[in-house]
Design goal:
Elements: H1 4-17, E1 21-27, E2 37-43, H2 46-64, E3 70-72, E4 79-83, E5 87-93, H3 94-100, H4 102-105, E6 111-112
Parallel strand pairs: 2-5
Antiparallel strand pairs: 1-2, 1-6, 3-4, 4-5
Length: about 130
């Protein structure tokens, strides 16, 4: 069985593999009973958001026999939410992400280092991206 932290990192890698961008992993387990982690990502279009969601659903089912408890927003627009229990995935268009600003709302949540394999070339950890 995969831990919630490993699941969040795996989802981040899957999002990156499908050209998701601005990927954030937030550890929220100390702040709420909702979940342990949020994985937040942006996509370019609604079609791209759906492709990101489809990739996560397919790969987690194939590799871990995991299915989401629910998927919201797939048919309606710029924000898809995938609930995997211990990990909740938020896939936004840039405009919707700016509007809802989950990073600001959950500012107290520690950020988890994004797996090194998906960092932009030349960066050694997530904190480098702030420069």
């Amino acid at each position: 069985m995969i831990s919630s932290g490993e699941l969040a990192e795996k989802i981040a890698v899957l999002l990156d593999n499908k050209n998701g961008f601005d990927i954030e992993i937030m550890k929220i387990e100390e702040l709420t009973i909702l979940s342990d982690y949020f994985v937040i990502c942006s996509g370019t279009t609604i079609t791209h958001l759906r492709a990101l969601s489809d990739e996560i659903e397919l790969k987690l089912k194939e590799e871990y026999s995991l299915l989401p408890r629910s998927i919201e927003g797939y048919d309606t627009g710029g924000w898809i939410l995938m609930d995997y229990g211990s990990v909740v995935v938020h896939i936004f268009t840039r405009e919707m992400r700016n509007h809802y600003s989950l990073e600001r709302l959950w500012a107290d949540a520690p950020r988890v280092e994004v797996p090194e394999s998906i960092l932009p070339a030349g960066m050694t950890d997530k904190t480098d991206s702030a420069d």
